Amino acid sequence: ATIRVEVARYRPGEDEEPVFQGYDVPLMPDWAVLDGLNHIKDQLDGSLSYRWSCRMGVCGSCGMTVNGEPRLTCGTFLTEFGAGPIRIEPLKGFPVIRDLVVDIDGFLAKLSSVRPWLVREGEELPLSAEYAQTPEQLEAYKQYSMCINCLLCYSACPVYVLDPDFLGPAAIALAQRYNLDSRDMGDRFDVLNQEDAVWGCTFVGECTRVCPKHVDPAEAIQRYKVTAALRSVLPWSRR
Ligand code: FES
Fold first, then answer.
1. Contact, 64 vs 89, CB < 8 A?
2. N or C: which end of the chain has fewer CB within 10 A?
3. Bridge partners of 3?
4. Cα–Cα distance for residue pair 46/53, rounded to 1 Å
5. What spacing in Å lies between the alpha carbon of 185 and ligand 1's midpoint?
6. How many CB atoms are closer than 10 A to CB 167?
7. What does pLDDT average to over the chain?
8. Which numbered atom of ligand 1 lies nearest the CA of 53?
């Protein structure tokens, strides 16, 4: 048996607009959508462009819009879609470079803007210094550290899709990953306490729903709203 896969094809600057091109792909029970794309690329049409690497839900590069939903294509089986067809488009909300490949430069700049590293102040310790943590201290931020930067949460976020300057779910969850780390002494208030950052979120919650790693960016954002609000009455409160 085969299943029809309709793939958005687009070369900005050459094509006027994206068009869908259909391919028949073997409907194998253990094939993910990404296997279907690899079959198209290897056997049917070598000109198709898309990103992937690990095939196991770790690298975060294979996110695409599958039948309208942002999904990791390596973690989405062809058999989920009955008799088909399956429509594959690039992630919504990002400029298309070619076919299914989107430009992630803006996203990477947002990640760096939250200072995603452990900030230590006023100490000079050897590189070998250890910073012990209890299991409870690890638990406080561990969930946010599971993010694989796959962009699904941005593609699902109605605020981001309307306002590309919105700092967005993954970057705010990443900031909280460091804010809530007992070893961190940094302060990210200037970046987070903005209309285009936590205050832009209208708490739709789609980011959390689509996250393949069960991170909860919606919670991270609401939580920082409380932190930021408290800070206006208790200026010394930091977390
Ligand atoms: Fe790495 Fe899908 S190919 S997450």
1. yes
2. N
3. 25
4. 17
5. 33
6. 23
7. 95
8. 3
Q: Which atom of ligand 1 is nearest to the CA of 51?
A: 3
Q: Give 14's contacts (C-beta < 8 A, 6+ positions apart).
A: none
Say if residue 146's pLDDT is above 90. yes
ipTM of the complex: 0.99
Given the CA of residue 58, which atom of ligand 1 is nearest to it?
4
Strands of 16-167, DSSP E: 19-26, 63-66, 69-72, 86-89, 96-98, 101-102
* Coil, helix or strand at residue 64: strand
Which of 51, 58, 71 to mutate for ligand 1's pocket (most ligand atoms within 8 Å of CB)? 58
Ligand 1 atom with least separation from CA of 55: 3
Strand 101-102 relative to strand 2-9: parallel, antiparallel, unpaired?
unpaired
Is 9 in contact with 51 (CB distance < 8 Å)?
no
pTM: 0.94
Quote the tokens at residue 135: 């299991």
d(Cα 72, Cα 219) in Å, to the nearest integer? 22
Residues with CB under 6 A from ligand 1: 52-55, 57-62, 72, 74
Pocket test for ligand 1, best of 31, 35, 54 (most atoms within 8 A of CB): 54
Which residues are registered as beta bridge partners of 102? Answer: 96
Angle between helices 169-179 and 105-113 (to 10 degrees): 30
